[in-house]
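RECORD TYPE: protein structure
NAME: Integral membrane protein
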Amino acid sequence: MGHWLYRNIVEPGKLPLLLALGAFVSTFVVTRVITRLIRAGKGPFGNVKAGGLHIHHVVPGVVLTVFGGFGAVASSRHGFGADAFAVVFGIGAGLVLDEFALILHLDDVYWTEAGRKSVEVVVVTAALVGLMLAGFSPFGVNEMSASELQDRGTVILSVAVNFVFSLVALSKGKGRIALFGVIVPFVALIGAVRLARPGSYWARRFYRRRPRARARAGLRAYRHDRRWSRPRRAIQDWIGGKPDTTPAQLPDAGRGPGPGER
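PREDICTED:
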C-alpha cells in the first residue's frame, strides 16, 4: 500500500490534491451533521451571530478558500506548505459548496427543495476530483516498467473512450450518467445508446422529424423519472437531510435565518 501510494500519489505530486479532497469531503460531512443537530435542537452547537447578524458558514469558507488557494499558488509543488494549504483550501471549499444553493438563489434555501442543489454540487465536485486523482495518475511517474506502462495505457484508453461516450450521453440530456460514465466503464455507453431525453440537444437535432422517436423519448423519460425520483430523493435526504415541506417565512428581507433557525 505504501509503495502504491508513493508511486501513484506522492511521486506525481498529487498528495496535495488527495489531502484537499479528503478535507473537502470530511468538512461537508461534519458540517451537515452539525447543521442537522442545530435544526433538531440537539447538541451543544448553535448559529454564529455577530451584532444580531447570522454568519453563514459560507463566509469563513470563502476566507479559507482564498487563503488556501493563494497559498497553494505561492508555495512549491512539494513540501509541507503545499499540503497544509491544500487542506485549508479543501475545508474552505467544503464550507462554500455546502451552501452553494444559498449563493445560487441569494436566499436561505438550505432546508428547502432548492437546497438539494448543494448536495448535488458537492457529490459532482468530489467525483471530478476523484477522477483527476485516478484518471491521470500515470503522468509524473518516473521509470515505469513495461507492465506498468501497459496497465496505465489501458486505463488512459478506457478513460478516453468513456469520455467520448459521456459527451454523447451529455448531448442526450443525461448529465449524471455522463459524469459517472467517465469513471465507471460501460455506464456512459448505456447512456449513449439509449433514447435522448426530450428537450436535449440530441432530441432537438435528430428527433425533429421523427415524431415516433420523440413520443418514445418522452414516455421513457416519464417512466424513468417516476421510477427513480423517489430513490434519488431518499439518497439526497440521507446525505444532506430532508428538506422542509413548506418554505419558512423569512424574518427580514435580504437576510435569511441560519440553517438551524426554524
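COMMENT: Residues 39 and 260 are 4 Å apart (CA to CA).
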